[in-house]
Recover the amino acids of this structure.
């Protein structure tokens, strides 16, 4: 389905091998942990722009403004293009291309994923319905590629920010505690930035808990087992599809009372507890699997939104 919808050029959807390694290596040069420091000014600028818009119309959560902020960060970081309008063509393409991903990557939805030969038969043949979807979305995805826009990261950050606001509205005591830490460390004359991260353990814990409580992709990007495997006495046959992100982040043995939003689970003696599993490693891919995580999971945009929360009605 990735080939039919036009996503086969994106290394996030390429099977492991030399082609994947070469593309990942190129991407890693610009989005590794050491490279992201250069992107903080862009993040700060767009968060400030968001807060100015929020002050102009306080009281309501403006979802479009959140979307604009995150899209502007991603496009500027990646391609140096400034976006200032929610109706920008880049944002419109992003929404449509993410729809293509959501529709085409539903596990078990299309026989084409199991019988690739069906891509050679007419779309009206039973079992070849994916070809119709491909004709609908491929021109859009190709325009995304040609215009050079990375839709997935924007959608992931948008999901995490809206989950964050939902958590603050549902658990106001958490918001008050985070705001108190911000007031004590930052004061009232400026907003937090990346240099304050180590001095804001509770705020950082709020970010961690947001990704754990409502992972941006609950099922993860489906992966198939490359060889027969065995884990804790369970046989996993080659070709099995693994969809475990939500279950792992809500495992009561790892995270007691997992349905509750509780940033304190990550705190010990007033600092982050290194003994608690970092949810980033699950939510955004294991080991070296999820390139761009250092940008996507940076806490600075979210700490900026902590300052915004008192302006909304909760």
């Amino acid at each position: 389905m990735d080939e039919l919808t036009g996503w086969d050029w994106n290394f996030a959807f390429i099977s492991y091998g030399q082609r994947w390694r070469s593309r990942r290596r190129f991407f890693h040069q610009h989005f590794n942990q050491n490279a992201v420091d250069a992107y903080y000014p862009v993040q700060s600028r767009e968060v400030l722009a968001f807060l100015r818009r929020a002050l102009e119309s306080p009281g309501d959560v403006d979802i479009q403004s959140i979307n604009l902020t995150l899209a502007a960060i991603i496009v500027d970081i990646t391609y140096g293009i400034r976006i200032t309008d929610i109706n920008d063509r880049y944002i419109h393409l992003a929404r449509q291309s993410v729809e293509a991903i959501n529709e085409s990557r539903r596990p078990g939805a299309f026989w084409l994923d199991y019988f690739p030969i069906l891509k050679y038969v007419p779309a009206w043949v039973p079992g070849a319905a994916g070809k119709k979807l491909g004709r609908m979305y491929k021109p859009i995805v190709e325009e995304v590629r040609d215009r050079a826009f990375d839709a997935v990261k924007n959608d992931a950050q948008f999901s995490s920010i809206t989950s964050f606001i939902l958590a603050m509205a549902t658990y106001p005591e958490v918001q008050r505690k985070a705001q108190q830490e911000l007031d004590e460390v930052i004061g009232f004359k400026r907003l937090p930035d990346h240099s304050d991260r180590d001095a804001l353990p509770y705020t950082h814990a709020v970010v961690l808990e947001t990704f754990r409580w409502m992972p941006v992709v609950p099922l993860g990007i489906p992966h198939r087992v490359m060889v027969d495997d065995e884990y804790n006495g369970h046989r996993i046959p080659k070709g099995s599809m693994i969809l475990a992100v939500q279950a792992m982040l809500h495992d009561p043995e790892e995270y007691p009372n997992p349905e509750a939003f509780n940033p304190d689970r990550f705190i010990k003696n007033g600092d982050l507890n290194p003994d608690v599993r970092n949810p980033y490693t699950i939510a955004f891919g294991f080991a070296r699997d999820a390139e761009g995580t250092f940008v996507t999971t940076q806490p600075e945009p979210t700490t900026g939104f902590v300052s915004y929360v008192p302006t909304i009605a909760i």
About this structure: The two ends are 42 Å apart (CA to CA). The longest helix spans residues 151-170. Confidence is low (pLDDT under 50) at residues 149-153, 287-297, 309-314.
